[in-house]
C-alpha cells in the first residue's frame, strides 16, 4: 500500500498521486469528501477538523480500495452504491443508470406543472424506471398520486424497489418489455413519463470510457437506423394508456428532439406538443397534452 501513514491527509495525497490524470483537483476533493462521508460519516467541517488525524485500519482500507476502484474508472456512485438525485440519496448498482441532473429537471417540470392543479387521484406511469428515481421522487411530492414504474430488467427493478422501501414511499414496480404486445397493464394513466434509452450507437465514440465501460448499455443505446424507436412506441401506447387531457413527459436527445416532436404531432393524439430546453440550452424535454 503506497500510503505514508494512516492519516486522512496521507490518503488524500495517495488519491492525488493516483487519480489526478482522471479527475481535476476540485472534482477529486469533492469525491474524497463523499468517500469520507460514506465510510467515516464525516461532514465537510469534520473532514477539515480531522484531516491530519489518524483513522482506524478498516476505514483506511475502505477509503484506499475506493481509490483503487476509481483508478479503474468505476464511477464513484457505483463504488459507494448510492447516488444523489433531486433531494434524496438513491441506491444504485451497475444494473441501473446513474440518475442524471437532466432527469432532475424533468421531475421538476412535472412537479411544477401539477403544483397548482387541483387533483385528487391521479395515476402516473414511468416507463424505463431504472433505479426508480423518477416515481419515488414524484410520490414524495405528489403523495396523493398512484405511481407505477416499469422496466425490462429484473435487476433494475430490485434496485428500484429497494429505493421505494428506503424512503418509505409506495410505488408499484412491474417487469415489462414495452415492445411486447399487449402490455401487462390494466389501467390508464393521467401522466406517462419516460427517460428511455436515447443515445445513438454512433455517439458512443465521443463518450467517456467511464460511462461506456460501467453503465448498462441496455439503458443507454439505440440503433442509428431507428433512433426514436422508444419514443414512437410510447407515443403509440399513449393512445391506449393515457387518459384524455393527460400529459406525456419525455427526456430527449437534442439530436433527435425534433423527430420526436414531429412524430407526436403527426400521431394527432395531442392538442399541444412542446419542446423545452435544459439548463445548458439544449432541446431536452417534450411535454404533450392529450386531446
Ligand atoms: C435511460 S434509462 C432511465 C433510467 C431512469 N428512469 C433514470 O432516468 O435514471 C432507460 C431504462 O429503460 C429500460 N429499458 C430498456 N429497454 C426496455 C424495454 N424494452 N422495455 C422496458 N424498459 C426498457 C432500461 O433497463 C433502463 O432502466
Description of the molecule:
This protein has 291 residues and is α/β, with parallel strands linked by helices. It has two domains: 8-72; 94-290, Vaccinia Virus protein VP39 (Rossmann fold, 3-Layer(aba) Sandwich). It has helices at 8-19, 25-40, 44-50, 57-71, 76-80, 101-115, 133-141, 154-166, 209-214, 217-220, 229-241, 257-267, and strands at 82-85, 88-91, 122-127, 145-151, 172-175, 189-194, 199-200, 221-222, 242-251, 270-277, 283-290. Strand 4 (145-151), helix 8 and strand 5 (172-175) form a beta-alpha-beta unit. The radius of gyration is 21 Å and the shape is elongated. The N and C termini lie far apart (65 Å). S-adenosylmethionine binds next to helix 7 and helix 10.
Q: Biggest sheet: strands side by side, in what order? A: 5-4-3-6-9-11-10
Q: How many extended strands?
A: 11
The overall pLDDT, averaged over residues, is: 95
Note the total helix count. Answer: 12
CATH 2nd-level architecture of the largest domain: 3-Layer(aba) Sandwich
Biggest pleated sheet: 7 strands, mixed
Shape: elongated
Question: Which stretches are poorly predicted, pLDDT < 50 over at least 5 residues?
Answer: none
Radius of gyration over alpha carbons?
A: 21 Å
User: Approximately what portion of the residues adopt beta-strand conformation?
Assistant: 15-25%
Count of spatially separate domains: 2
CATH C-level category of the largest domain: Alpha Beta
Estimate percent helicity.
40-55%
SSE-based structural type: alpha/beta
Quote the distance from N terminus to C terminus.
Answer: 65 Å
**CATH H level, superfamily name of the largest domain:** Vaccinia Virus protein VP39
What are the secondary-structure elements, in order, as H or E? Answer: HHHHHEEHEHEHEEEHHEHEHEE
Amino acid at each position: 500500500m503506497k500510503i505514508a501513514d494512516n492519516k486522512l491527509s496521507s490518503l488524500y495525497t495517495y488519491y492525488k498521486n493516483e487519480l489526478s490524470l482522471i479527475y481535476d483537483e476540485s472534482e477529486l476533493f469533492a469525491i474524497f469528501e463523499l468517500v469520507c462521508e460514506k465510510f467515516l460519516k464525516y461532514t465537510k467541517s469534520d473532514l477539515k477538523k480531522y484531516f491530519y488525524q489518524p483513522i482506524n485500519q478498516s476505514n483506511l482500507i475502505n477509503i484506499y480500495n475506493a481509490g483503487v476502484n476509481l483508478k479503474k474508472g468505476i464511477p464513484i456512485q457505483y463504488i459507494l452504491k448510492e447516488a444523489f438525485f433531486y433531494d434524496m440519496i438513491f441506491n444504485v448498482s451497475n444494473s441501473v443508470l446513474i440518475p442524471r441532473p437532466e432527469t432532475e429537471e424533468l421531475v421538476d417540470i412535472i412537479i411544477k406543472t401539477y403544483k397548482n392543479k387541483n387533483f385528487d387521484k391521479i395515476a402516473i406511469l414511468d416507463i424505463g424506471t431504472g433505479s426508480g428515481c423518477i416515481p419515488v421522487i414524484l410520490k414524495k411530492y405528489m403523495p396523493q398520486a398512484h405511481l407505477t414504474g416499469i422496466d425490462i430488467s429484473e435487476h433494475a427493478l430490485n434496485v428500484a424497489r429497494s429505493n421505494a422501501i428506503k424512503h418509505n414511499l409506495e410505488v408499484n414496480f412491474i417487469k415489462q418489455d414495452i415492445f411486447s404486445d399487449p402490455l401487462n397493464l390494466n389501467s390508464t394513466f393521467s401522466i406517462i413519463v419516460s427517460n428511455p434509452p436515447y443515445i445513438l450507437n454512433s455517439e458512443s465514440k465521443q463518450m467517456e470510457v467511464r460511462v461506456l465501460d460501467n453503465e448498462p448499455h441496455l439503458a443507454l443505446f439505440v440503433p442509428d437506423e431507428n433512433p426514436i424507436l422508444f419514443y414512437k412506441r410510447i407515443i403509440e401506447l399513449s393512445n391506449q394508456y393515457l387518459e384524455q387531457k393527460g400529459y406525456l413527459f419525455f427526456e430527449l436527445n437534442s439530436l433527435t428532439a425534433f423527430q420526436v416532436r414531429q412524430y407526436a404531432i403527426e400521431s394527432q393524439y395531442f392538442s399541444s406538443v412542446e419542446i423545452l430546453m435544459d439548463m445548458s440550452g439544449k432541446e431536452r424535454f417534450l411535454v404533450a397534452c392529450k386531446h
